[in-house]
Amino acid sequence: MSNTQSSAPPVTLTIAGSEATGGAGAQADLRTFQELGVYGITALTCIVSFDPANEWQHRFVPVDQQVIADQLEAIQTTYPLTTVKLGMLGTPATIDTVATSLKSQEWDNVVLDPVLICKGQEPGAALDTDQALTAKILPLATFVTPNHFEAESLSGISIRTLEDLKEAARIIHRKSGAVVLAKGGVRIEGPDAVDVYFDGETLEVLSTPKIGDVAVSGAGCTLAAAVAAELAKGATPLDAARTAKEFVTEGIRNRVTSNAPFDAVRQGGARSSD
Ligand code: PXL
Q1: Ligand 1: which of 29, 115, 129 to mutate, judged by most atoms within 8 Å of the beta carbon?
Q2: Which of 118, 222, 252, 263 gets mutated to test ligand 1 (max ligand atoms within 8 A of its CB)?
Q3: Distance between CA atoms of residues 227 and 244, nearest Å
Q4: What tens digit of pLDDT does each residue of 76-109 get?
Q5: Which residue stretches, if any, does this entry annotate as coiled coil (predicted)?
Q6: Positive or negative: CA dihedral 74, 100, 84, 153
Q7: Which of 74, 195, 266, 271 gives 254 a disulfide partner, CB atoms 3.0 to 4.6 angstroms apart?
């Protein structure tokens, strides 16, 4: 017990998977939390290990349901939490376990990165997971950050242009009630990486010049984690989105190269290379 809690940074939880190389998932979330000055903790839902001998496909192992529930019980009993970020949940069973824990308390901010597809999963299993996520987790979200593919899936429209992305953001808001930050990333043609923010009133296009034309691992995780960190510190949703976009752009600019065929976001890279 301590009576100095008021000076501590806000505790921010990520419920996410481990991606063993650290580019995405819980590792990216925790680095983002650290950089943005919140106290990050994690409940692990699954372990993903790329397979270098098989085109870097994802080998996916879910954490036992009881172990996920135990982690969340320990965390939720230890800290008064207001903000949670949800990353890869991965199976319908995990979605049920996480939904039950989420519903056991009130939240100010539930930031959902609706990770829909994990390569290496059976398509059937992935479809079940997508449906369970939409039915059971999306209604609990206050802020959702779909990428291009996820925005198409959640909105039911195909997205080629910025106007399509705006329409998708409106549809997803209408379906979920959540603030939407729909990411065009490198997938909308043109010189800029455009994301669309829509909260039911304000629609804002967040735009930065593209850095290369290949997606970088961990960008989505980092963006949603940065939104969660900023909301936990009391930022408005729009300011959280703006800061998160700047943070992830900086991380992409300073990205980590490796033997893998994709680069990874480097959170705080600008600071540490000074
Ligand atoms: O970037 C999506 C993502 C999220 N979480 C985990 C992942 C990945 C993609 O590889 O492995 C654990």
Answers
A1: 115
A2: 118
A3: 5
A4: 999 999 999 999 999 999 999 999 999 999 999 9
A5: none
A6: positive
A7: 266
Which residues line the pocket of ligand 1, CB cutoff 6 A? 16-17, 19, 24-25, 48, 58, 87-88, 115, 220-221
Helix (H, G, I), strand (E, B) or coil at 28: helix
Query: What topology is assigned to 9-262 in CATH?
Result: UDP-N-acetylmuramoyl-L-alanine:D-glutamate ligase (3.40.1190)
Q: Which residue from 127, 145, 133, 115 is spatially nearest to 48, judged by alpha carbons? A: 115
- For residue 117, pLDDT over 90 is answered with no
Give the separation between CA 240 and CA 243, rounded to whole angstroms.
5
Quote the CA–CA distance of 249 and 228 in Å, as a whole number: 17
Closest residue (by CA) to atom 5 of ligand 1?
Answer: 25
Q: The whole model's pTM is what?
A: 0.95
